[in-house]
Amino acid sequence: MIYCGIDWAEKTHDVALVDDSGQLLAKRHITDDTAGYQLLLELLAEYGDSEENPIPVAIETSRGLLVAMLRTGKRKVFAINPMAAARYRDRHSVSRKKSDPGDALVLANILRTDMHAHRPLPNDSHLDRAIAVLARAQQDALWNRQQIANQLRSLLREYYPAALDAVAKWENGLCRPEARELLKAAPTPSRGTRLTRTQLQAALKRAGRKRSIDAEADRLRDVFRAEAAHQPPLIEEALSKQMLALLIQLEAACTAADELAKAVEEAFPQHPDAEILLSFPGLGIQLAARVLAEIGDDRTRFADARGLKAYAGSSPITRASGKKSSVTRRWVKNDRLNHAGYLWAFASLRASAGANAHYRRRREHGDWHAAAQRNLFNRMIGQLYHCLQHRELFDESTALPTELVAAA
């Protein structure tokens, strides 16, 4: 059997082929373009690669055009963690030497000796991969939006606390269209005090507000005209220019998050697993899309529910040595899935009486909030694995039964 290892880079890649005995059969240096991909396919075909018996490939990434080209057909592509590859490198040399052709050879030998210990990239559908792209991009846009909002909040605290008081009672605060319109109309406290009731009403209408415009305008006028400390005029004007620059970035981030959310709402319901995911309490379209993006729709990816729980970081890990033993949370996990799981468990507390009862039992048992949430997520994702495998919808009476309290 032949094994292929590819050390990838931005512009060029190194390829190595080895046989069962570990002998280097061929090595190539290819470019990251169509000509380089064609050279790679010709090299693989020269050593017996075919559609029925493709040569397995090890590479240190799971993304990009090179990986997309290799994943066509039945070929198994193994995405090796760079840290794992570095440990394998030490098996061949104690001098810590490193080179790109040598790394390609190491990756090929990983498949030769330990292919059973690594999993190939899952055979997810194209629709699932498209949903994964959109869901991850929308999650990144939300994180970016929050980061810029935090920078804007920190800046406003330096010279314009009245603006923070004005948006404090609004959900999402500075990320709301009303907040952005107010800051455009009055970028400094001095201009804020001069805003009239009519100007405030117009700003709220431009932001799309439909209800309680008059009452909200009166409240905002009182907040902006309240007595407060001020920076010197020149410094205040300079800070306002910095604030407006941040406001442009925040508006772009808000627009990107909203557009990507709409794209997810259009794509996710088309997936066959959407109905099952949405049947679980606490999962809406956006959160369910993130869960599907990380677990995929290849039913053979996880051997059992325990594997999925470990991948999500919800199941504990035991460390034992001699007489010492400890049970702790997992640190090596899919961070995106783990983050979605925390939000899922938190939202299910109000959507499901059984989930809330399970959480309360864990708290009474001595768990802290995060540990109880993680335990609930661990149970829910195990049930999700069962429902996806058997094509069943979530049934709370079966999954999270609650004890009946006898009526007085």
Structure write-up:
α5 runs antiparallel to α11, α9 crosses α10 and α15 packs across α17. The strands form two sheets. This protein has a five-stranded mixed sheet. The protein has a two-stranded antiparallel ribbon with strand order 6-7. It is an alpha/beta fold. The C terminus is likely disordered. The protein is built from 18 helices and seven strands. It is 58% helix and 9% strand.
Class by SSE composition: alpha/beta
Number of helices: 18
In total, the number of strands is: 7
Sheet-strand content, in percent, reads: 5-15%
Taking the sheet with the most strands, its summary is: 5 strands, mixed
For the record, give the distance between the C-alpha atoms at the N and C termini, rounded to a whole number: 74 Å
